[in-house]
């Protein structure tokens, strides 16, 4: 099913004779049908912004359940402000449709937007299998004059060395269609706002005409400026450099936090004071760096080079060490009372970031495995996940965790729902009538347990 299939001839933009104004008008009037491949945290809001702009967008996904819900105007991912309302509005107006039939959507579309997962495998090598599969779907319906925009974050050179060969393995040749990298700078939780223009939009084409078409289209979508890079590879690296900057910066904060006792200062307060100087912007230490963005982008860059890159490598390894630091600290705290072997430990927060139901590379998973290897029994609480990812932990509901007898706890992700936890419930009254607390590691500076009997270690602040 294709939303609002134009009654008139559809228009391709790449290499078109029409003037830029005529092309912009055609796009806005829905005569340039769009297909967006990947209805996830980013692809769905992105397709809705396309839909509100052109009225001729079809979302494609391989998940039948997700497609059925979306086609019906129901949003399975309701953590994004504004998405549910915009989705039902555009479906009702036939300005957005959704399908699992990617080939049908590709045959109608004149702009193809790919925003499927790009991840790393167990060896930290890029896994672009979803991207290649989506490109093969596009190829099946690629016509001269079409444009393909790759929004997924990709290793340097992917558009030219991976996507273009897939697209030209059929009837099309290079130069017959547009291909550009148009990286998404959105963060989950503020996707619509970001896509509509929180930041300048980066676009880079495999050739000049591809870059021109990408800039023309995204100039219609964003309220912000469109920055055209010299080529697709540059646009790919812009996105990756942003991410690796963040990874290395967080690593600096984390390294400083592991030295809290050595420096004898509250590192959080110290960073806050240091950041009052405009040339200093140290990010926040925590229990680790998760998600399928920041932890992966360093590997996308490292995989593309043979030269040493010690800063990138070290930043990644410092961040990957933080779950171990949390467990070592928990074991230290327990050691005065009992061994970690046989202890019951409650983990608060499994999603990689507060409010976002995504668990790829979540620090809590590594923490659970480390505790399990030490012989602890692990309980995990995450109010925004329907179920836990694969991890050695018992899934406990938020309203049941304080009924459990736990020896220690760690807050890994600071969901706002944890604000109502009654931490006194974990205290125990000894035979001497004294209420004793447990060891708690606060990985996100989110807890104030000063009124409890618990012994707390806050990452970046130390024991208190
Ligand atoms: N989540 C973010 O904050 C964010 C921000 C910027 C960039 N990105 C990048 O955007 C891309 C997508 O991320 P996401 O968070 O939306 O992923 P996601 O896992 O939330 O959604 C991906 C969707 O793509 C679908 N899919 C997989 N293979 C497909 C195929 N061959 N054809 C059609 N659909 C397919 C999946 O079923 C899923 O619905 C990644 O490259 C990511 O790096 C993500
Ligand atoms: C460059 C940039 O800004 N990119 C953002 C990022 O968004 P994200 O959804 O991946 O979320 P982050 O906030 O980066 O968190 C990742 C993990 O790092 C932990 N963390 C974070 C900040 C900190 O100071 N200390 C930490 O420990 C946090 O807990 C979590 O586990 O990538 C998206 C895709 O590229 C971007 O679009 C988006 O703009």
Written overview of the protein:
With 464 residues, the protein is α/β, with parallel strands linked by helices. The protein folds into two domains: 20-233, Rossmann fold; 319-463, NAD(P)-binding Rossmann-like Domain (Rossmann fold, 3-Layer(aba) Sandwich). 38% of the residues lie in helices and 14% in strands. Strands 3-2-1-4-7-8-9-10 form an eight-stranded mixed β-sheet, with helices on both faces. The chain has helices at 20-28, 43-54, 64-71, 83-92, 102-108, 129-140, 158-167, 191-198, 208-221, 232-258, 260-263, 267-274, 294-303, 310-320, 322-335, 363-373, and strands at residues 34-37, 57-60, 96-99, 111-114, 119-120, 126-127, 147-150, 178-181, 201-205, 226-228, 344-348, 377-381, 394-395, 408-411, 428-429, 435-436, 439-442, 455-458, 462-463. The model has no long low-confidence stretch (mean pLDDT 96). Helix 6 (129-140) packs across helix 7. It is elongated and about 85 Å long. The chain contains 16 helices and 19 strands. Helix 16 (363-373) links the parallel strand 11 and strand 12. Ligand UD9 binds next to helix 10. This is UDP-N-acetyl-D-mannosamine dehydrogenase. InterPro entries: 6-PGluconate_DH-like_C_sf, NAD(P)-bd_dom_sf, UDP-Glc/GDP-Man, UDP-Glc/GDP-Man_DH_C, UDP-Glc/GDP-Man_DH_C_sf, UDP-Glc/GDP-Man_DH_dimer, UDP-Glc/GDP-Man_DH_N, UDP_ManNAc/GlcNAc_DH.
